[in-house]
Sequence to fold (338 residues):
Amino acid sequence: ACGTGVNLSADPSTSAAESTISTSSSASSTTRVTAPPLSSSAESVAYSSESSAPTTTEVPVTTTTTEVPVTTEAPAPPPVTTTTTTTPAPPPVQPPAPPVQPPVPPAQPAPVPAPVPNGSAAGLVVVIDPGHNGANGANPKIINAPVDAGFGETKACNTTGTSTNAGFAEHEFNWAVANYLKTALEAQGITVVMTRDSDSGVGPCVNVRAAIGNKANADAVISIHGDGSAEGDRGFYVMTSERDPAGAEMAGQSAGLASTVRDALVNNGLSPSNYLGNNGLWKRSDLAGLNLSIRPTVMLEMGNMRDPKDAALMTSDAGQQQFAAGIAKGVLSYLGAY
Fold:
């Protein structure tokens, strides 16, 4: 039933839709009569009779009207549920792990010749002088102070030294080679005296370094340095004093030490300088350490730290050991122990 309903709950005696049905007594059966419809509402009427006495039954018609609101708007569609699936970002692609490198063994002492059978090196003294020092640069007042340089001259106490273009300091190179050399010589029974006991101190001054060799009555004094020159200048050179501070005889011993060490370095795979000296040898008149020494003394410039190829050799453990081994062979040969 759509639309407005009809209220049929009024008194049936006044209703226009009323029906009374009678049956006669002579009828032997029940007669069913259909009354005309009252309205569009459903109606149910029951009729019955008994054969002995006719009975008229009035059935009140009750109609219940349900008012249904009419909505002209289309029903809202059911809510749409959207399921969002988040795909996790793939993990970043990791580069393949580098191959595991075997641990680098600690640096070994420079290889040296086997001890001579008669032990002729025992009791000999060698002074090793690693040039400069680690704290020189932080103490300019000390290292710039003038000291005796021999022959009535003065010079600065010390200097900072040079370095490679990458900043590897000369004093560090000198210290490393000196310690490899010390180990090699001590293995032959030689007594080694160092002019400094660390790479973090100041000095000592050049006059003090020379005095250490003189006081020890050294059989040989080896001063180790690195040069700082233009790129392309390569190789080592060995310096001695041009002034002969202890006379001609001692000067000759220094010259013999220089040439023997030069030859041993060459035989150990190193090249003489291509820019200073003559075939790896050079006499100097301006170096206090040489002018004040009265023992067989040489000063070595092992290579040019400003040249990439020399610098690569001088900064590596293998290169430092190669320098030390060559010097050791030269010293032992000079001393008659090789």
Summary: The first helix runs from residue 140 to 143.
